[in-house]
Specification:
single chain, mainly alpha, 13 helices, 0% strand
Length: 307
């Protein structure tokens, strides 16, 4: 009995070591991400969404996909907030291809997640921002080509989203937003660190290299597939991705995971199923998987070429 207790105690010490190491490395990025995300939500959200509404009357044509994708990245709303906003601007006359670009990048990235992802290093951060932006452009182009004369979205029943940042005192409004942010992301952030500690302790580095490493298409495909059930929230997956990259995951595999993860997050899928319908929902899933796979291969190819 004493021997078992000694073993459990030793394992607990090891797990705490890895947990503490990851927490020290990433905690500051989490704090900064919450601060930035709350500031954008309180002070800039209305301006960002106002720019989106003003696009409705413009004549950018296909070039409108660029600002639409950028505004999606800048928007701090979750998907259940994005869809009512998209419904509102759709009723004001915005094109479906621009909306597709906006919604796609809004799913994949936001200002808070950009700060979180800085913990992965400049290369991974750049890959995440560029790939998410291009994913929005690609989604918009496909809707423009194949649904030029048909409606792609069904926003029936969606009303204008109600803002929760309504307190007359700006400081109180900001503090309340920060509190909601901590409550929403904190548990998953800690869970992600705990899972990364378990991976570092019990999963051999050689296994991670075989599964996700190198420039093999199999590794990219595995990462894209694993991203579907494993992704919980952006803050929670950063510690996992960081530990996987340290243990041999290729940058292309990480890119694929960072696309399929948020794009197939259960809460996002539930909202998207409503506005897509069954057939277009399946097309969306196929597009996400294919784009993630091709992006991972392209990133690995670029990395090999630069070496």
């Amino acid at each position: 009995m004493s021997e078992l207790f000694s073993v459990l105690r030793r394992e607990a010490v090891y797990l705490w070591y890895y947990f503490d190491l990851q927490l020290r490395q990433i905690f500051l990025y989490w704090v900064l991400g919450i601060a930035l995300g709350s500031c954008v939500s309180v002070f800039l959200k209305d301006r960002i969404h106002g720019l989106l509404r003003r696009m409705s009357g413009s004549k950018f044509g296909v070039l409108g996909l660029i600002p639409a994708s950028l505004l999606g990245i800048a928007s701090p709303l979750c998907m259940y907030g994005t869809i009512p906003l998209a419904a509102s601007v759709s009723r004001s006359g915005m094109r479906d291809d621009w909306l597709a670009a906006f919604m796609m990048t809004s799913i994949l990235l936001n200002p808070q997640l950009i700060v979180y992802s800085a913990a992965l290093g400049p290369a991974a951060l750049t890959v995440r921002i560029v790939s998410c932006f291009l994913c929005g452009i690609a989604a918009g182009l496909l809707v423009r080509i194949f649904y030029r004369d048909r409606d792609f979205f069904d926003f029936t029943g969606f009303d204008e989203p109600r803002s929760r940042d309504t307190h007359p005192n700006l400081l109180v409004r900001l503090l309340k937003n920060i509190g909601r942010n901590i409550k929403a992301t904190g548990p998953m952030f800690l869970l992600g660190i705990a899972l990364s500690a378990v991976f570092q302790r019990y999963v051999p580095e050689s296994l991670m290299t075989r599964v996700f490493g190198g420039n093999e298409a199999w590794g990219v495909l595995m990462a894209a597939t694993v991203g579907v059930p494993l992704y919980a929230c952006g803050g929670g997956t950063i510690p996992l991705i960081a530990s996987w990259l340290d243990e041999g995951m290729s940058l292309g595999s990480a890119a694929a995971f960072m696309i399929t993860g948020p794009a197939t997050k259960i809460t996002n899928l539930g909202a998207l199923k409503i506005v897509f319908g069954a057939r277009r929902f399946l097309l969306y899933l196929a597009f996400v998987m294919l784009f993630a796979f091709c992006t991972g291969l392209a990133v690995n190819g670029i990395v090999s070429w630069m070496r």
